[in-house]
Amino acid sequence: MSSEQVSVTFQPSGRRVYVLPGSKVLEAAGRAGLPLDTPCGGAGTCGKCRVRFAEGACEPCAEDRAIFPEAELAAGWRLACQSAICGDATIHVPDSSLFADQHQILAERAGETGELLPAVRKVHLQLPRPSLEDDRPDLLRIEGPAGPLRAGLDLLRDLPTRLRACGFAGTAVFTDHHLIDFEPGDTTAHCYGAAFDIGTTTLAGSLLDLRDGRELALASNMNPQIRFGDDVLSRIQKAGSAEGREELRSAIIGAVQDLLAEMCRKASLDREHIYEVVLAGNTTMQHLLCGLDVTPLGAVPFAPACGRGLMVRAAELGVGIHPRGAAYVFPVIGGFVGGDTVSCMLATRLAEQDGPVLLIDIGTNGEIVLAHEGKLWAASTAAGPAFEGARIRQGMRATAGAIEKVVFDGEVRISTIADSEPVGLCGSALVDAAAELLRAGLVTSEGRMRIEGELPAGLSPDIAQRVCVGADGQPEFILAPAGPAGEGVRLTQRDIRELQLASGAIRAGVNILLARVGLKTADLKRVLIAGGFGSFIRRSNAQRIGLLPGDVDRRRIQYVGNASLNGARWALLSTNARKTAERLAREAEHVELSQDMNFQMEFAEAMIFPTG
Amino acid sequence: MSSEQVSVTFQPSGRRVYVLPGSKVLEAAGRAGLPLDTPCGGAGTCGKCRVRFAEGACEPCAEDRAIFPEAELAAGWRLACQSAICGDATIHVPDSSLFADQHQILAERAGETGELLPAVRKVHLQLPRPSLEDDRPDLLRIEGPAGPLRAGLDLLRDLPTRLRACGFAGTAVFTDHHLIDFEPGDTTAHCYGAAFDIGTTTLAGSLLDLRDGRELALASNMNPQIRFGDDVLSRIQKAGSAEGREELRSAIIGAVQDLLAEMCRKASLDREHIYEVVLAGNTTMQHLLCGLDVTPLGAVPFAPACGRGLMVRAAELGVGIHPRGAAYVFPVIGGFVGGDTVSCMLATRLAEQDGPVLLIDIGTNGEIVLAHEGKLWAASTAAGPAFEGARIRQGMRATAGAIEKVVFDGEVRISTIADSEPVGLCGSALVDAAAELLRAGLVTSEGRMRIEGELPAGLSPDIAQRVCVGADGQPEFILAPAGPAGEGVRLTQRDIRELQLASGAIRAGVNILLARVGLKTADLKRVLIAGGFGSFIRRSNAQRIGLLPGDVDRRRIQYVGNASLNGARWALLSTNARKTAERLAREAEHVELSQDMNFQMEFAEAMIFPTG
């Protein structure tokens, strides 16, 4: 079936994905990293997720006809939540249809409002040359009326020579009230910054034009620290020695450097024109990349070294941008609720949302934030890296060859990324498969996989024949049979157990946090799902396995993409956003779930899959 | 005659000087670096300069009797401006009799007022250990309610280990809102800073206890850059190459390091407990010690690299104190009016003085500041190093063996520092000798030394026989005849020319500055004389040679000691003083004398000695 996949190209980003015919455009866009705005929850009623097919448009459905006039339908306009992909297609996504993270809003409004306030500013100056009538010191000449301007010794040492070499005409580069360079000529057109989401398993970077907030390149890679262990605790242990700490530090900085190099290549620009980086990650990742001592994060009460954001020279971190470029590392809330969570809160304006709102950032750690009546509670659960493909026998990241979707419709239908031969499965397929196995009665609510002889009556032969027993005597389910090109892909009993642990940890966290505040899942006005994985998850399946509460209307569940990266982008573009981040980090109440008396009980209960 | 000198010891400082019997206590105290407060100008009427002889008291004079009751006279109380030294003496100088520079006021009032506000603070803390109820990050734990606390990466990297090693009990060291260390135990008793006056010829340092402002040690040495030239222009030329700049930088930093080492030895303390240094020097010296490019200071319009004060890590300058200790380098006014002038303005509260007040800082450059009706004008003149002993054939600094006083009273009487065999003469003796030679008619007002056959009638034989001709055929005057122990000391025609240039430059500057503002010398309410040399100068002689205006009542001329060092001390003890310094530097109007159309004319006129 995977050979039936079709190619969908999104414009203006040019991102391309491969999906099964019949997939909704909304889903394909999510796969392409373009979460669309669906306040109606994909019911086809709000008309927010409008897109335009340039080629490969399907027939308009009733919902399309209710929203678009005939001329627009003829031009290819459709609702992404209703329209299916019927063949190779090219689809235009207007900015207004994207889930509006603050970075996007800012980039759109650049120039119109004063919100685009990056710490880095470039100003082309033709300064008056010193004269007897105007013998002001060089730095005061650049300062202007805005107030005291500082400069580091290394720049000051050569500033006089450089100013005179260019005849006092050039481009001053400022970060806040510091002059970091004076470049000959007018270089104002080259003013870039990079934002990073530093995950335990995955790193993502975004290169922005600081003049207008436009994204020039995106890149992501694996966190190379994985070779020291796939969760934060194993990293903390490894960092117990000075050598270990340095190994972890240089590994992650090396990955950041790689992302920077890749993005500079993609955008054809010079690293020296990147003047600032903003980094958001969980507390352990941020500490490790700064080379801080993480030993106290390994034991109760998990106290971090620092809480407020760090503003340092990028060179001090080993990040190779402009030699006097800056680095801002996000503030953290507590031991396991870090800068990435603050960044998500920032990107979604969580504190300003109406009614009880829950934010779930699904990653190796699952961070959960509840906003209610002007207050914020934040917690972290050790979900483990199962959703990112680790600890699953044939698990993998969502890259070429990964099964990313599983549907049972009498037979087993799978969709593989890049339409490749299936070699493993990623997190979304894990959730799909488990949900379908539950629906088919092949997995019990306790998570036991049924074996031959226990199978429910009426099971289709195609599905029944995929139930088997592995070499370890444990049940397995064949998602893709072995063939000439590969050994196939199987889901194991152990994989189901890993999923139960990961899903149960997050769900228990949600329940405890709600109980703390005296709320039930049904009270939630909205549930925001963040994280690279979160964008691909299918809500009904996440509800089926109990990861998301079943009594929350699907329309209240919204994907917000990699909100941590979006928040980092926003902080790169706005010093006001940083102030907000600092405030949010200090205002949020840190709930330490592992120490909650009810956590073990909740966890045990949440590991049980809901009955159909 | 030098064998007749007597020893005077001042308490509580323990400083000892040797003076001629008959010298006023006021003069001896000035020699000892203890400028006394004489608002009446030494007329014996204000009663401010009271001192107490512990031994060697002379008979009280009428002025003493008018001020002190009999019991106090019996206890040794006298007026320093009236009482003469009649033999070896030990004299107590109460703090209240010292010229009250702001550092002294601050040190006296420490604890009483909130004025003692050093940037460096130490606080002994017994922090609550992290617990489940209180899992705040380490740095926030130290922060307290005062607001965001920052720390550099190098400290943060090991902060968790160090806090835990000392059980969260120790001493936090802050500079402004930065944590620079957390020391085990209670080290609050060890909190030091050092202030420096960086002169073209002479460096002076002062080590202070930052808790109460007390001075723990003083030291001074020659500026080793002298080997590259004795004035700022020759240094600027030498610094034209990168190697030259580095040579000059490391030479002066080496001298600062030597002073630090000497003061730490004297006070028996550890350099690591010095957390801040404050440095004040002229613009060129400050630029050179920071390693800044000084090329533009070598040509019109002499624009400095920066104007505001610099706050950097001491380690960046190469100054070895606490590894994260700070350095504050004074703001400058312009190319040749630097941080030392700002520091003098600060120490004397010049801007707050009543009436037109003139400050003259006599050094290798003579800086002149006029305060009038809330405005400030500042100028610099290239006096050259003559007053500091350079460019004078047998000139030397005011150290052992230097003739420091010359009196003609029928014979030539000299006084030598430390009562040593005379080997040269220092600046005050140069002024004395020139004044006496003028009075005796041995030097004409054009500065020509008279030779045998031109001598005035009635000259005493002792003096007449000292007039001679040097090997170059030019007139010379024997101050100390050659003897078995040495070659003697002679003043040459060329020396007189150097003095004319030095004195004329300063006096021309004074005249131009006054003319700018529409004032005459007679309008001056006060003239403040600053500088190491300034403390030793005799006002009548300075007026006789025209260095100081003759129509200003002597009582309006006040010595303020090394005001640049005093201002640096004050800035070390008070961040408010730094703010004032920054403001003064920007408010003062920089008058570039060398470009004044009248300067050459004024200079030529000022070189003529006044007629008797």
Outline the secondary-structure elements.
The structure is a homodimer of 612-residue chains.
Chain A: E1 6-11, E2 15-19, H1 25-31, E3 50-55, H2 62-67, H3 70-74, E4 77-79, E5 89-92, H4 102-109, E6 120-126, H5 138-143, E7 150-151, H6 153-156, H7 159-165, E8 169-175, E9 178-184, E10 192-198, E11 202-209, E12 215-222, H8 232-238, H9 242-267, E13 274-281, H10 283-290, E14 310-313, H11 314-317, E15 326-329, H12 339-347, E16 357-362, E17 366-372, E18 375-381, E19 402-408, E20 412-416, E21 424-425, H13 427-439, H14 461-464, E22 467-469, E23 475-480, E24 489-492, H15 493-517, E25 526-530, H16 539-544, E26 557-561, H17 563-573, H18 575-587, E27 589-590, H19 599-606
Parallel strand pairs in A: 1-5, 7-9, 10-13, 13-15, 16-25, 18-27, 19-21, 25-26
Antiparallel strand pairs in A: 1-2, 3-4, 3-5, 6-8, 8-9, 10-11, 11-12, 14-15, 16-17, 17-18, 19-20, 22-23, 23-24
Helix pairs in contact in A: 4-17, 12-17, 12-18, 15-19, 17-18
Distance between the termini of chain A: 28 Å
Domain module tally of chain A: 5
Proportion of beta-strand residues of chain A? 15-25%
| Silhouette of chain A | globular
CATH superfamily of the largest domain in chain A: ATPase, nucleotide binding domain
DSSP summary, beta strand count of chain A = 27
What is the second-level CATH architecture of the largest domain in chain A? Answer: 2-Layer Sandwich
The major pleated sheet of chain A works out as:
6 strands, mixed
* CATH topology descriptor of the largest domain in chain A: Nucleotidyltransferase, domain 5
**Which CATH top level class of the largest domain in chain A fits?**
Alpha Beta
Low-confidence stretches of chain A: none
Fraction of residues in helix of chain A: 25-40%
> How is the largest sheet of chain A built, in terms of strand order?
12-11-10-13-15-14
Largest interface: A-B, 52 and 52 residues
The structure class of chain A reads alpha/beta
Quaternary class = homodimer
